[in-house]
Amino acid sequence: MDKTINPEHIAGNGLIHRRHLLGLGLAGIGTIAAGSVIAADTGMLSIPAWSKTPGNGPSDYGSPSAYAADVKRLAGGPSATAPGSGVSRTPLHLLRGTITPNSLHFERHHSGIPAIDPAQHRFVIHGLVRQPLSFSYEDLLAYPMVSQIYFLECSGNSGANTAATASDTNAAAIHGLLSCAEWTGVRLSTLLEQAGVTAAARWITATGADAASMGRSIPLSKALDDIIIALYQNGEPIRPEQGYPMRLFVPGWEGNVSVKWLTQIKVAEGPGHFRDETSKYTDLLPDGKSLQFTYPMGAKSVITSPSGQMQLLRQGIHEITGVAWSGHGSIRRVEVSADGGSSWADAHIEAGQQHLALARFRLPWQWSGAPAILQSRATDSSNNVQPARNIWMAGYSPANRYHYNGIQSWSVSTQGEVKNVYA
Q1: Inter-CA distances, 190 with 76, 118, 193, 194, 292, Å
Q2: Both ends of the chain: CA-CA distance in Å?
Q3: Are 150 and 254 in contact (CB under 8 A)?
Q4: pLDDT tens digits for 204-244?
Q5: Is the pTM above the cut of 0.90?
Q6: Cβ atoms within 10 Å of 302's Cβ, excluding its own
Q7: Based on the domain organization, do 224 and 318 belong to the same domain?
Q8: For the chain, how many structural domains are there in total?
Q9: Are the CB atoms for 360 and 34 separated by under 8 Å?
């Protein structure tokens, strides 16, 4: 049987085996998917205007094409009660790969972006240490550095899907408080070792230089593990909206603990119980109690294409693609369903995925024009499995908006319209 004409279906509603993405199978899928492509007539080729005259010369800092102007963050409106507070979301549905460009990395601010002169900024380590230390930006540049690719996710990301009614919007609006970058900086453990942590120490508290004096508490064990003082993002100095000149970066944990514009770390016996870890960033339970310090982000995935507010323009083979991640390790498996979870197929996960980083998954799908509900389900290296929405909701108060990692469902209508639904 010719697999390019009759591909191997392995789950309901048109899902095709992931091997068709590899080797000769990829060419076969391309043949089927290219039904709208017009065969070229070499005698009709013409030279476009942009090939007839010299273009612009080199610049001091690159910019995207004017024809890609729609690839930008989804910015929220200003806050009437907290000036400078707000978010802008990464356009996940318009990106491929796993690394987020610096200009598209999501933002979350509690009191705006301070304009910090690095020559006047100081970072202090004090508290339960034998020798308090004060660092300038230049001091930190002299230390040995490490580079690592990590995702960063706000704990309120995807919280829109905890509402009673599914919002008709796109992947950025629901899941765009998520990005992934290469972070470069100094290991916090190196600086704490130099300061000399005393035997009584169990926690650190980190505070930022913004007007909100953002502060968070972190167990000392994590501080001595993989936390870095990040100075660079994707090879360039971190942007002001990401904490220039320096930020704490806490891999795998909710984004709020990666305090930006870092100004001090206090080593202490217990947590600081800051405003943003008592009145906010706690998980409300059905009995009225709250969980505090629930730091790691759960196993999670989202199909970014096809996704909300997209339109399928033809029947035939499409590539389902998305990203998966977990604060408990790497992504071991991603399953995809086209029938609302009645049957599942293993997606192809791109090679080179890393610990606590985004993983890109893909799977071919043959859409016949019938209704479909697309879902993805992630399993991480610690065997955590992404839960169905109803299972996640049963574990929390209806008012809880933090740490939602339930399965995302996208419906596809007979007209090819893609919408966010609960299934």
Answers
A1: 38, 21, 5, 6, 28
A2: 36
A3: no
A4: 999 999 999 999 999 999 999 999 999 999 999 999 999 99
A5: yes
A6: 25
A7: no
A8: 2
A9: no
